[in-house]
Every structure is written in C-alpha cells, then in structure tokens.
Sequence to fold (564 residues):
Amino acid sequence: MQTILIVEDDRKIAELLQSYIVKYGYHVIVTTDFEHVLQQFQQEQPDMVLLDVNLPSYDGYYWCRQIRAHSICPVIFISARAGEMDQIMALENGADDYITKPFDYGIVMAKIRSHLRRAYGEYASKHEEIILHKEGLSLYPERLELHYNNQSVLLTKKEADIIESLIERHPRVASREALLEKLWDDQTYVDENTLNVNITRVRKKFLDLGLLDAVETVRGIGYRLYISWNQDDGL
Amino acid sequence: MKLFLKEHALLIVIQIIQFSAVMSIYWLDGYRNVGPALYSIMLGLFFLGGYLCYQYYSRRHYYRRLQEPLLSLDDSVQQLDQAPVSEALEQLLRQQYRYYQQRLATINQQQQEHLTFMNQWVHQMKTPLSVIELTVQDVDEPEFASIREELERMSSGLNTILYMARLRTFEQDFHIRSISLSEVIREVVQEHKRLFIRNQVYPDVKIKDGDLWTESDQKWLFFMVSQLVVNAVKYSAHTNNKVILSSYIVGHQAVIEVQDYGVGIPASDIKRVFEPFFTGENGRHFRESTGMGLYLTHEAAQRLDHQLELESTVNQGTTVRILFPSYQR
Fold:
C-alpha cells in the first residue's frame, strides 16, 4: 500500500482529503507537528507528499527544498494562492505539480494517481480492480462490462458511467444534473438529448441481460435503478 | 496681459479724468496756453506708461500664472517673480501643494492598506470555501446542489475581487506567451460545466481554421473568456439554447467569439456596458450583476492589446468577440 503524507495546517481540509484518498486504497498520514515535517517525512518514508504553501512556522517552499535534499518522491502543492509567481516558486523549489484552492476531489485524485504512476510505474501500485455489485448485477467500470447471471454485455464509457451512478445512488434517485456532470468530460459536452439517448442505450443493455424496466424515470428529477429481479433468482 | 489691463483699466481712466480735470481748471482760470498744457499731458501719460510697463514687467509671471489653468498639481510650484504679490501667491501655492501632497500620501497609504487587507482576506476565505466544497462535493442530494451553486457564486465573486486588485498592478502581473485559443475555450467550458448544466444551456464549440495560437496572458485571457461565458449562460438560462464558442480567422486577426441566444442588451445600454458598475436594464432583472465583469474584460483587453466587440439585439442574443492582432497556426 502506498503512503501519502499531507502537510496542511487547516485540519478540516487535511481530514477531508485524507478520508477521500483513503477510499482509493492509499495509506494517508496527516502532519500535526509543523516544526518537524522533515523528520516525519524521513520516519514515514511516504511515496508522495501533498504540501500547503502557508504553514505555521516555515512555508511549504522551505519544506519542499528540505524534502528534495533527501528524496525524489512526488510533491504536489495545494494552495489558495493562484498567482503565476507562486506556481513558479513551487516548481522552482522542486514541486511536481500545483493545485489551487478551492479544488476538486477528482482533480486531486487524478493528479495523485498520475504522479504515482510516473514515479513508480504503472504496475507498481497493485490496486485491485473495482467491481460494483448490486443484487446479482456486477459492473466492471474498468473493463466496461456489465454481468448478470453468467451473461455479460459490453458498455461504452458513458453507459458505464451512468450505470455506476445508478448503482451507487440506489435506492435513491440519480439526478439528471449529476449524471450530466459525470458524463461531461474534457472533449465532449453532453446535453439533455445526449443523456436521453444514453439512458435509452442503457435500458437496451439491461434488456440484453433480460432485465426489464431496470431504469426508472423520475419525472423532473432523474433516474433510479429499479430492481425487480432479485426475488426470483435468489441471488 | 489681458488680466493686467483689466486690473489697471480703472487707474488709466482715473488718470485721464485727472488730466482733464486739471486742464479744465487751468482753462477756466483763463490760462489758455495749449503748447505747455499738451506737453504736461504727454509727460503725465509717459510717467503713467512707465509705471504700467514696470508694473507689468515685474509681475508678468504672476499674471500669467493667474490666467493659465493648472495642468497638474506639480504646476503650482513654479518660480514666480520677485514682486511681493507674486511671492505671496507662490508661497500660497506651495503651501497648498504640500498640504495636498500630504493628503494624497495618507489616502494612498490607507488605500494600500485596504487593498492588502482585501487580498489577504480573499485568500483566507478560500480555505473555508474549500472545506465546504470538499464536504459537499460527493453528496448528491438536491439541497446540496443548491449549496454548491452558492459556493460557486462565492468563489466567482472572490475571483472578481482578485482580478480587480490585479488590474491595478497589471504591469507586474502579466506574462505574455503563445496560447492556443481552442485550449482556452476548452478550459473555460470545463471550468463552468456545472453552470452550464444547472442553467440547461449547453456549449457548442466550433474550432474553425484549425488550432490558432496567439500572444496573450493565459490567466487574463481565461478570465476574459470566462466572463463572457458566464454572461452568455446567465442571460440565456433555461431557454434550451446553445452558447456558441468559436475561434476563427478574420482578415489578419484571430477571433474568439461567444454567442448566445438570450435576452440581449437594449440598444440604449450597449454603449455603456464596458463602464464599471454599469448593470443596465438586464441588471435589474437578473440579480448578482455587479457590472464589473465586462468592465474588467474590457480593461484587460485594452492592456493586452486585444480588441473587444459586442453586438446585441434584444430577445435575439448577444455576440462578443475578442480580436487578436496576430496569430500563428
């Protein structure tokens, strides 16, 4: 398990980040002693450091230089300062990346993963494949496959995203806005029509698995996974 | 000269009356010798003329000073003449100058303190904002969507303050380099994806003429396009219309265009949209208009040497273009 050290003096942000990153299977340590960041670094030997610029005694740049004197592990700065100078300073002092507050979990996680991959190789982190289970239904978001009753269908990325949201939200409704936000990636801008089309495709995929009316429309809000199959199959 | 003559007109008139009075007394007394009388008048006028010339010559700077408008505060401390009145005026102006200098310095300092405080404060606010944002990010309940919306509003407000402050120190703060227009458009759209989705307005990105590169400042250009997009979305919310973002070439210029099919701007307001704090007709219907977005965009465009064009028809929409004087492919 890879270890990530968070050096951030705002306790709440540190804890929120910690609880989020832990979900992805990393070991996370939060610094509480800002006088001895380097000692803690050497003790714990983390695989990556998230560093704030404004710290109680020395600033983040200072600690980054200290860490750099001993290790080449990835260091990502997290700061409220968005100025170009601050970013340049950070990179000059040995940082690998810079994220400005307020930030998005998704971006932090993506950057952490990409830097870990860079530093330790794609397969160095043996993270297990994510599988989502629901009443006999299994979604493999990384393989883009949906399994039910020894049958499987291939999904597109968008369909997988929709099904993932539906499973995660079940039995609550996944709102249209949340679905749109999830489908919207760098290159393609998804509108209501695209969402409708994709929902129709998802329904079709469920039908292919023999599951009728699996996606229920909740007028004005969004969609909900409707599970009508588990009683008979006893799965 | 004019002022001098005006001021001494009475003296001249009195002198002439005096000459004629003295002459008429002699005349009435029976002394009728014209030659010496004329001679004494000539002599009198000569002395008067001499006096006036001396007076004018010794105070000419003083009179000029009184007549010319001050072009700047520094004008008030010129060297005047040696005459007592001139020296008095000079001293008065000097005093006034010093007094205003002091006032200006105090006010400048106060403003500087205020600005520094604002900047610090804005940065401090970002941390609690991040905490709230991280807390609600993964919760998909309707009330949290509304909290997220308010959060976005707050952080865009804070950003505007920061850019406002940056505008003052623009010369130290910008960094020109080659920038891809399509990249800027993509980033802006990505940044505002929630705004689009929430308002049920969707972007339509049209990159014509390939990927265009131009010289600009990344941060400011991003800010400018963001402002245009935020306006476009705000004024066409819930109409199911698209906002078209395009980049293309016109003549020798590269263009970023943001076009919406929203409410448009009344013709009477169009001239003034780039003025600070101007919200106009639409500002009354849409809350949270500060009138700063387009002003800042315009100011930044001027400083970066980009042109800004705005066309609008009420109920049909608005098109804003940023024109870049040169480009590379």
